[in-house]
Amino acid sequence: MPWSHHSHSGQFCGHAANTLEEVVQTAIKKGMSIFCLTEHIARAIEDFYPEEAKRHDQASLAKLYDDFYHEARRLQKAYADQIIIFVGFEGEWIREGSLTIIQDLLATYRVDLFVGSVHHVHTIPIDYDHDMYYKARDVAGGTDERVFEDYFDSQYDMLQALKPPVVGHFDLIRLKSDQPDRSFKTWPNVWKKILRNLDFVAAYGGVLELNSSSLRKGMKECYPQVEIMETFHAKSGRFTLSDDSHGVDQVGLNYGKVADCVKRAGVTEMWHLAPATDVSSHFDKRFPTVTWRSVAVADQTMSD
């Protein structure tokens, strides 16, 4: 298993398990060469998840990320001879103020990457449980099709504002829907918005993660679905690999099934972060110490 560009730990995430160091040690035991530590960022108090509201206020949640950042940098040095670690965060695009929160974070911390994600529609979490998903769907107009449209519109706003180096779980919206494995092409308006978003990501050079977390949650394909992978590949889009692990049991989980999706989509090349060898080789002026490198799929071992 080569790498992951998206991970969490119970030490710094209320809905995860295990310490950050235990997660890193597990990645090493599983033979990973690159592992990215990307904890959730602090959000406005009105956007706390239920487990956060019981334990935090806005200041303590911000301190939690600060504690994570310094522990992640410590681990990066401590295990440098065993694994390449990169440190960043998973962004939360929820409401107008999200942009300021993420911009302030980028100004405060020198991160190696961030994952641009959307977990909310109309400020309501769409991946937490079915009740919240249905609430968001009702606000959107009462159908899966309408809430999917609004999700991809919100994602487009995030992409335009942030141009994230890694686009997280592109089609997360399907997780709690009534038809999580339905083809997006059966909804022309939804598919049109997906194509728009993929065009934008390809144009600025963003990388779509192939996120295995959908598979442990009972879906048949990784995020994004194979039909989206095929389409982005045809646009010369780039892909990387992520487990979106929330504890040691999920590190590298279901990578073999992701490999099946890769094969079906005809993807022949994957990309991973690497230290930039000189200033001219970095991929984004915001992240001058890292770059992307390509590896042929045929040269990778993608198994659990």
From TrEMBL:
The keyword RNA-binding does not apply. NCBIfam families: hisJ_fam (TIGR01856). Belongs to the PHP hydrolase family. HisK subfamily. GO terms for molecular function: histidinol-phosphatase activity. It catalyses: L-histidinol phosphate + H2O = L-histidinol + phosphate. GO terms for cellular component: cytoplasm. PANTHER family: HISTIDINOL PHOSPHATASE-RELATED, HISTIDINOL-PHOSPHATASE. The keyword Amino-acid biosynthesis applies. Its EC number is 3.1.3.15. One of its GO terms (biological process) is L-histidine biosynthetic process. It is an enzyme of class 3 (hydrolase). InterPro entries: Histidinol_P_phosphatase_HisJ, PHP_dom, Pol/histidinol_Pase-like. Residues 5-213 form the PHP domain. Keywords: Amino-acid biosynthesis, Histidine biosynthesis, Hydrolase. This is Histidinol-phosphatase. Pathway: Amino-acid biosynthesis; L-histidine biosynthesis; L-histidine from 5-phospho-alpha-D-ribose 1-diphosphate: step 8/9.
